[in-house]
Design brief:
Number of strands of chain A: 3
Order of helices and strands of chain B: EEHEEHEHHHH
Largest sheet of chain A: 2 strands, antiparallel
Largest sheet of chain B: 2 strands, antiparallel
Structural class of chain B: mainly alpha
Structural class of chain A: mainly alpha
Radius of gyration of chain A: 23 Å
Strand order of the largest sheet of chain A: 1-2
Number of helices of chain A: 23
Number of strands of chain B: 5
Strand content of chain A: under 5%
Oligomer: heterodimer
Radius of gyration of chain B: 25 Å
Helix content of chain B: 55-70%
Shape of chain B: flat
Shape of chain A: globular
Chain lengths: ~500, ~180
């Protein structure tokens, strides 16, 4: 049990007053971010990133990951009390959470949501603890061709498995990769795509783009809606908590199923949103009493929350072990790691043991502390929503500007942020997904370097990506996933030949 | 407060009307975006072609990788353009209504002004002005509340970033008068 020993070492790194204080601050900020409309996990982390620039890397990553946990917890509060999902992944929580609040069982619903979040995260963290070191040491044998194949796999699976229009995913991804290439070429030192501008020489900073795309554009989108809201206040008593916990073991199958779905979708770039819906739908399908779902059934809160958190947490597994983020927020954490000069990927486990195990230990501790914190302070955070959006919106704008400026001390970045805000607004409205863009922007240079290093090694021979069994199967899998929709249609058509189509009308429009 | 303690009610006095007419259809916006992306792809493709897309003795030249990305981007935008023009998908869909657009402008124009003012007045003074005017005009919140909130926020930000965390923000004449 090498992992266990290292984990204990991680806890010893962590248990100082300073780190614990940072953890609490991160969690509180994170819950705020999750509760407030127009702010979400990704931009919350991106905006608050500059705060951590003066900290040591361990405290900094603990704070950032705690903001992330906090945001995951916070999303549930607004879903249940106000029927407003603070985050896209808490939409499924509103189905049964809000009816429960209407029936006066808000405290039960909140306890159920927080506890199942905790269980989901815990499952995923256990997975990370025991799987990540293995994957990392396996990946240590990877050369540039293998790494490029893995990047290719990530990109292709986004295109092939994403639910958006294929060409829109491709647009978003290539745009991200192109913008990542602006500035000094890292291999040859040549300038490209700068058009003689000194500002573009630095390249387009990933975090500036994220703050604009998620922060500013979210404000613009939120303003379009009617922002009046009406909801329930709630406080949680110990009696309610114990009652829910006593009921919980009955739903072990739902919890287990949702955890597994969440972990799987988190590692592959499917995301927490898909996981929460799938968790909910499967719980409904396997239930004996299907009609009671949507009317305030506690199981309907357990299922999506467990899945969303398992997926949100396990998205960090490929980031730590391979340097490939499984979600938008993980991509931003990865951007943060690079700010401190840490190179995420398999070498991290060898070169920065303290850091990696400190981070993993902080996932355990952060979730326990977070659970206690949200259970005791729900009324305070629900009251935050009494503050009108007209007061919150300009504050978020200012925070975004501070975040964008602080990264490189450049006024140009504030303008860039505003530009990305408009781009993000338009893209979201016409259905061009932003997650592939984020991922491409953060991975662009690494993917290109891997490609060029493998080309240099192979003397320009493209068959290097099929030169051995490992790299060959990853590359082939990448292409299979890329053309998955086409392949799937071929299978469907083949099966329709001997089964006449009669269910055409049942398809959702 | 007339509402009981168990309810939280927040009003939105300047909410957009639900029956506002459409300004532009999603299809039109998709066509415009496709054209812009196509132009961008051509521009970046040309620039990378100029940088060099061939193979040097030590592997591909600097423009090789982005050149082919620009090609893919161009192809995908052409496809998008083709889809919108031929099928007319999204023609009936509203991209934004007039009321929504005016609300979005209510936040976008102050943000633009804020960015401009930051260059002359510094970030903290600009944020004070932004928050006060936004709360007063869009939120119809009492003037003293708006002023107080904006002032407190600017001070807290200054103390947190410039003093406690050493993250230096752009500053203007007011900060200079206090010696920062």
């Amino acid at each position: 049990m090498e992992a266990f020993g290292l984990l204990l070492h991680g806890f010893s790194v962590l248990l100082t007053w300073k780190v614990l204080a940072v953890m609490m601050v991160g969690l509180v900020l994170g819950i705020f971010v999750g509760v407030l409309p127009g702010l979400g996990g990704p931009n919350g982390v991106a905006i608050l990133l500059p705060l951590t620039f003066t900290m040591d890397p361990t405290s900094a990553i603990v704070m950032l990951s705690c903001i992330y946990w906090g945001a995951l917890f916070g999303g549930a509060i607004t879903s249940i009390l106000f029927n407003i999902p603070g985050e896209a992944w808490s939409v499924a929580t509103t189905f049964d959470g809000y009816p429960m609040a209407q029936q006066g069982k808000a405290a039960e619903a909140l306890t159920a949501a927080f506890t199942s979040s905790f269980i989901g995260s815990l499952t995923a963290v256990l997975l990370i603890t025991f799987l990540a070191p293995g994957i990392a040491s396996f990946a240590l044998r990877f050369g540039p061709p293998e790494f490029f194949a893995v990047y290719l796999l990530t990109f292709c699976s986004f295109v092939g498995l994403g639910r958006e229009d294929k060409h829109k995913t491709i647009i978003s991804m290539t745009l991200g990769l192109l913008l990542a290439g602006i500035g000094m070429d890292t291999v040859s030192g040549t300038l490209r795509m700068t058009f003689g501008s000194n500002e573009l020489l630095r390249g387009i900073n990933f975090l500036v783009a994220v703050i604009g795309l998620f922060g500013i554009s979210e404000i613009l989108l939120t303003m379009e809606e009617r922002l009046a809201l009406r909801g329930h206040a709630a406080s949680i008593s110990l009696r309610v908590v114990l009652k829910v916990w006593k009921e919980m073991p009955r739903y072990w199958a739902t919890l287990l199923r949702s955890s597994v779905i969440g972990c799987w979708l988190g590692i592959t770039p499917g995301g927490a949103i898909a996981a929460s819906f799938m968790g909910y739908n499967l719980a409904k399908r396997f239930s004996k009493d299907k009609d009671s779902f949507g009317k305030g059934r506690i199981e309907g809160v357990f299922a999506p929350e467990t899945a969303a958190h398992a997926s949100g947490t396990s998205a960090l597994l490929p980031m730590l072990a391979l340097g490939i983020p499984g979600s938008g927020t993980a991509a931003i954490l990865l951007g943060g790691l690079m700010v401190w000069g840490l190179n995420p990927g398999p070498l991290l486990f060898v070169e920065h043991k303290d850091f990696v195990w400190g981070l993993i230990a902080s996932m355990y501790l952060g979730n326990v502390v977070g659970l206690v914190l949200v259970l005791t302070t729900v009324p305070v955070f629900a009251a935050v929503l009494r503050v009108p959006f007209a007061a919150i919106a300009p504050m978020i704008v200012v925070s975004c500007a501070i975040g964008a400026y602080a990264i490189q001390n450049a006024m140009f970045d504030i303008w860039l942020m505003l530009g990305f805000g408009v781009v993000g607004y338009v893209f979201k409205k016409i259905g061009i997904p932003l997650a592939p863009f984020t991922l491409a922007l953060v991975l662009g240079n690494r993917a290109e370097d891997a490609f060029r290093l493998s080309m240099i090694g192979a003397g320009g021979d493209l068959t290097v990506f099929w030169s051995n069994g490992l790299v060959g199967s990853i590359t082939t899998l990448a292409f299979v996933l890329l053309f998955w929709p086409v392949l799937g249609r071929v299978f469907e058509r083949a099966s329709r030949l001997w089964r006449p189509a009669n269910d055409r009308g049942t398809r959702p429009a | 407060m007339a509402t009981p303690e168990t309810e939280i009610v927040v009003e939105d006095p300047t909410a957009p009307a639900g029956d506002s007419p459409s300004v532009v259809s999603t299809r039109t916006v998709e066509i415009v975006v496709s054209l812009l992306l196509l132009a961008l792809a051509l521009l970046l493709g040309y620039d990378n072609w100029r940088t060099g897309i061939a193979w040097a003795p030590d592997g591909p030249q600097a423009g090789y990788f982005p050149f082919y990305l620009a090609l893919i981007l161009g192809a995908a935008s052409l496809y998008g353009l083709f889809i919108s023009l031929v099928t007319g998908a999204g023609a009936a869909q509203t991209f934004v209504t007039r009321a929504q657009l005016s609300r979005v402008m209510q936040v976008f124009i102050p943000t633009l002004a804020f960015c401009l003012l930051t260059q002359w007045l510094g970030l903290y003074v600009a944020s004070f002005l932004l928050i006060t005017s936004f709360m007063r005009v869009v939120g119809r919140i009492a003037l003293w509340k708006s002023l107080l909130t904006a002032f407190l926020f600017a001070v807290v930000m200054f103390v947190t970033f410039d003093l406690a965390f050493d993250v230096i923000m752009p500053k203007g004449p007011l900060e200079a008068a206090f010696g920062y």
